[in-house]
Here is the input.
Amino acid sequence: MTGPRKSLESWIWDAACSIRGVKDAPKYKEFILPLIFAKRLCDVFDDKLNRIAKEVGSRIRVLNLDLMELQPN
Here is the structure.
């Protein structure tokens, strides 16, 4: 290979562009906004799960807890 190696990120981006084809900006947001929303939900869930895991000892125990056990008296 004579030129500089492509990074994995640019290789994936080029592959996505060839699959996706040409999209104008208003159409593109219909794909991106739901992905950003889902990512935000996952991040908030992980943060809350980690916070509770510190209180109970592990993430596995958190996932097995009943919600009523977490309610303050």
